[in-house]
# Entry
Amino acid sequence: MIIEPSPTNACFGCGGANSRGMRLAFEQDDATRRIRCIFRAEAEYQGGPGFVHGGIIATLLDEVMGKVNRFHNLRAVTAELSVEYLRPVPVDEDLVVEGWEVERKGRNLYHAGEIRDASSIVLARGKGRFVEIDPSRYYAENDARKQQADSPLEI
# Structure
């Protein structure tokens, strides 16, 4: 199954409504229970000359690991993220980004991910802890905060 960027989602990584976002599309492999993405980082995503910025590498890993929650049909937010930068990640080359579940303990979901080059050499690894949320409560609280921030201050 292909997970395309939603045209109403403003997420920097996977949303389609963010004109400056990455607009990542993913493949959900139900047989292996893995999420994959092929991504080519253009020069706008570089840190040092010719190499992808470390924050973009972290974003790719966070996004692919976050999509692993789909196998449980739940919503979860990133609580912890660690990245191992093993080799420089080149711009203008196809990258394979893959994520999978490691374990689940109650509301905590532990995932892992990798970024590989076209030769399957692992360039970066990530580990993440995601916490399951109640979407109706989360979005209601977020909407209330936004309304409060948008209202004029009374003196």
